[in-house]
Amino acid sequence: MARENRWVDPAPLEVARPRLPWWTLLPWKAKLLLAPLAAVWVVLWLVGRGVRLVWFYPLTSVLFVVGGVAYWVARIWVLGGLALVVVGGLVWWHRDPLGFQRRVRWLRTEARRACLYAANWRTVTRLAGLTGEAKGREYLPTLRRTRSEWWRDRVRVRMIPGQAPEQWELRASGLAHSFRARSCRVRQVKPGMIELDFGHADPLAASLPVPELAAADSTVDLRRVVIGQTETGKPWALRLLGGQYLGVGVQGAGKASVLWSLLWALAPAIRSGAVQVLGIDPKGGMELGQAPELFHGGPVYGNGAAAVELLESVAEEVRARAVRFRGIRRGWSADSGEPFLLLVLDELADVIAYQTDRKLKERAQLALQTITSQGRAPGVAVLALVQDPRKEIVPFRNLFTTRIALRLDEAAQVDMVLGDGVRARGANAHEIPEATPGVAWIKEDGKRDPVRARAFHITDTNIIELRHYVTGGSAVVLPFSLRPDGGAAA
Ligand SMILES: Nc1ncnc2c1ncn2[C@@H]1O[C@H](COP(=O)(O)OP(=O)(O)OP(=O)(O)O)[C@@H](O)[C@H]1O
């Protein structure tokens, strides 16, 4: 019974009929007339493919043509020369792989394009769901220019219509795995065009020794204070004039190196009095107490009334300067005759969140909000460091124009510090290895893409050198065991 009811395919051998191109249906006379046009089109298409090939593989094309001509003229010598070049290249690569990769960038670019990206592009984009289909036609994102550096490949992509960079950001991890990279970041180049950054190595893996202190009579450009290096090898510069900085990182993330690198770069201006640094160190002086001479009037140790009063006095100065500048100048400049003020808060949470005295806590929050929101024009900047970025701890994170995420514990913390969507653009501060303190992701207001950089490594010896520099050699540095407070002050 069951057998009789079984469904039988009425046309088991019927397959999808192939769709013939429209021109095959034309009468033969029309085909004859259109034949020369079709021939011209085919030739133009071939020329276009050739030009494209030369554009993407210039070196290989030149070598191919020159090699072919030379081989035709003098066979044996060319073969010998070629063998020598190959063996020489292999020896160089074996002895100095990094130098080889740095110098022979063009070769690497073309080899990686041909063997990795062009070879797998279609399959990977299809499997990653980055292709599209409309009216029976498949749309593929186009692989454009590629550039290989020793630590990353930059791959430009023309997206298909209707696609957004965010769709690529969602697939970034899968793309990295498919193209055998450690990471993949998506950058927007122009409408419809993105650049994928496939990282293979960390250019910030080695710590950066601090440069020599600038000559005492040199001027410091407060719009460009260099405190380290970005992953592309450019200086990591802070725009102190008009900027408010929040640095967040777990214990040992290297927050102090951001602070000391900044003071190091400002040293000539601190020495001349053009910049006055005010400091609060709630950890009893463990950090700022290493160089108290750098701070105008000495740092305040602790988070009590003295710390809050200092904050309030800076807030008052912000208001007073605004009144003094009114109608005379739009913002602070060196010729105003007033020093630029930099307020350094080593552990912000201790001052504005962990206060047991509620009144002090409110006063501290109010003063700091005034400074960060109004300090730009009167020439007052803040560098605040904190371990915990939660809203309950720093309720006014958005008042800091630049946020620096050093190593963090969780992905959610990255969003809290850098803002929504920045992590999707590659800023994985929670993945910074413990072995690279001082590495950070930086997000500046008004700039779409975050930057990855590392601060200079400032040692205890450097800090002593800095103290002598700023005091003109009069700093008294006691050996650790002789310090009255067990190491904090001199
Ligand atoms: N930029 C850097 N390059 C290399 N090493 C660094 C750098 N910054 C810090 N370190 C090293 O990492 C360790 C911890 O650094 P640091 O004290 O600056 O961290 P932190 O975030 O301030 O920690 P904490 O919150 O406990 O004060 C130190 O041993 C220091 O020498």
From TrEMBL:
Chain ranges passing through the membrane: 28-47, 54-70, 76-93
MF GO annotations: ATP binding; DNA binding
Keyword Nuclease: no
Binding site for ATP: G249, V250, Q251, G252, A253, G254, K255, A256
Classification via InterPro entries: FtsK_dom, P-loop_NTPase
Pfam family, one: FtsK_SpoIIIE
Gene Ontology biological process terms, A to Z: cell division
Sequence ranges assigned to domain FtsK in this UniProt record: 233-415
Keywords tagged on the record: ATP-binding, Cell cycle, Cell division, Membrane, Nucleotide-binding, Transmembrane, Transmembrane helix
Name of this chain's protein: Hypothetical cell division FtsK/SpoIIIE protein
Source organism of the structure: Actinokineospora fastidiosa
